[in-house]
Structure formats: C-alpha cells, structure tokens
Amino acid sequence: MNKILYFVAALAVLTSCSTSYSVQGSSSISSLDGSKLYLKTIKNQELKNIDSCDVVHGKFHFSGVLDTVRIASLFMDDESIMPIVLEEGEINIQIDRAKQTVSGTVLNDSLYHFIDRHNQLDNRMNELGHKQNQMILEGIDEGQILQEVEAEARQIAEEREQLMTNTIIENFDNALGPYVFEMLTSVYRYPILTPQIEYIMSKAPKKFKNNPYVNDYYSTAQENERRMQGFDVDGTPAPAAAATPDTTATAPVVNVPQ
C-alpha cells in the first residue's frame, strides 16, 4: 500500500512540473485544407517534431505536455510558417494571406507584440528607398536627400536596437529572452561582441547566461575577441609570431549560430 501511495505522490510531482498546451488554429487560406502541419522545436541541438495535425475545413488543433515552456515553430512540410510559445493555456493561431498571429497566452501576446513592432520598423527602413526616389523626382538637392535618408535610417536602427535590447532584458527569466537574443545574434557570420551584446550580458542573471545557446554564443564570442586582440584563449598574451598577421595563421574560433 505504501508503494502505491509513493507512486501516486511521485506522479503528482512530475505532473505538476510539466506544462500542458492546447492550440486552436484557423485559416482563411483554402489551399491549406488537407495539409499536414507540424510543431517542431530544438532538442539536443536538432530540430524535431513534437506534434502534428491535419487542417480540416480551415481548422486545426494541437495539444500535449512538455517538461517546460519552450519556443516552437509551426511548419507545413519543410516550410516554417511562424513561431509559437508552448505554454499553459488556450493558444489561438490565425493564419491568413495578410498576417499570421498567435494570441491567448501571456508570452505569445508578448512575442507577437514584439514581432509586429519589429516588422513596422523593417517596413519603415524598406520605405526609405521609395522616399529617396520620390525626393529625387521632386528635384531636391542630392546632398540634402542623403542627409535626411541617412538620419532616418540611423533613427530606425536605434529604435530597432532598443526594441530588441528591452525585449531581451524584460524576458531574461522566460523563453522569449534567449529566443530574441538568438534572433539578434543570427545576423553575424560568427559570434562577435558588440556594445549592445555586452550591455545585455552585463545585466543578465545566471539563468539567462546558462541558456545553452546564450552560453555557447557568448563564450565563443569572448574567445574570438581575445584571439583577435592577440591573446590566447586563457587570456595570456600570445607569442609575438602568432600575433603577427599571416596567411597561415589559425582562424578565429567560429561557431555559426544555427
């Protein structure tokens, strides 16, 4: 009898540590009917299926249990459609030709508020080319055009940097922080340190720093920085010959973000 009680208690503890999710989706795109959708997430540095379903009359549904809240991606075949936070609660997905959104839970609402704002800034940046052409047609001086367009481009870039920095810092303790950090750093060919990244890491708690992607990126970026400055990985000055540029010199440690 005691063994049975112990088993029930242990099961209750395990269940309480898990996260159940329920995703209700709808689409106005008729061509999606009959398609198979997949939820995929990174496990052990590999992208793996964790759930799948069929689209029937514009409706689809996922549900399951996870050991932790995590970011997943909605796929159709091998094409990634959109990110989604798998967390407790009723998650709603809406897919149409103009927009794809996820709502209904705290982190998904935060994620798509960030995505909407980021897209707005991207659109403003893309519109600068049209603005420049329009000013040329209006006969405005080229020097003035260049000055105005460059100033606006700097402003948009600063707003985008601030948006990403604030979003990461505000979500250090949940799945969104590392996700946006990966988005931020994925634009670099190999891990580097920038003032923005250094500022974020100076504010970061241990939980964020211990995230596998964040830890790997930051440690590799530090190694790359030391080598570019002529130091060995352990921080000691490298031999003079090694510090001299040479076509046979060892390349910096490179860990391309996946």
Task: Provide an overview of this structure.
The chain has 258 residues and is an alpha+beta fold. The protein starts with a helix and ends in a 15-residue tail after the last helix. It has 8 helices and 8 strands. The strands form 2 sheets. It has a 4-stranded mixed sheet. 47% of the residues lie in helices and 23% in strands. α2 packs antiparallel against α3, α3 (142-170) runs antiparallel to α4 and α3 packs parallel to α5 (195-203).
Using brief descriptors, characterize the structure shown.
258 residues, alpha+beta, 4-stranded antiparallel sheet, 8 helices, 47% helix, disordered N terminus
Q: In oligomeric terms, what are we looking at? A: single chain
Task: Tell me roughly what share of residues is in helical segments.
Answer: 40-55%
Mean of residue pLDDT?
A: 84
Class by alpha and beta content: alpha+beta
| Radius of gyration based on Cα positions | 24 Å
List the helices and strands and how they pair.
Elements lengths: L1 H15 L2 E9 L8 E8 L2 E9 L4 E8 L3 E7 L2 E8 L3 E6 L4 E4 L2 H32 L4 H29 L5 H10 L9 H9 L2 H4 L2 H17 L11 H4 L15
Parallel strand pairs: 1-7
Antiparallel strand pairs: 1-4, 2-3, 2-5, 5-6, 7-8
Helix pairs in contact: 2-3, 3-4, 3-5
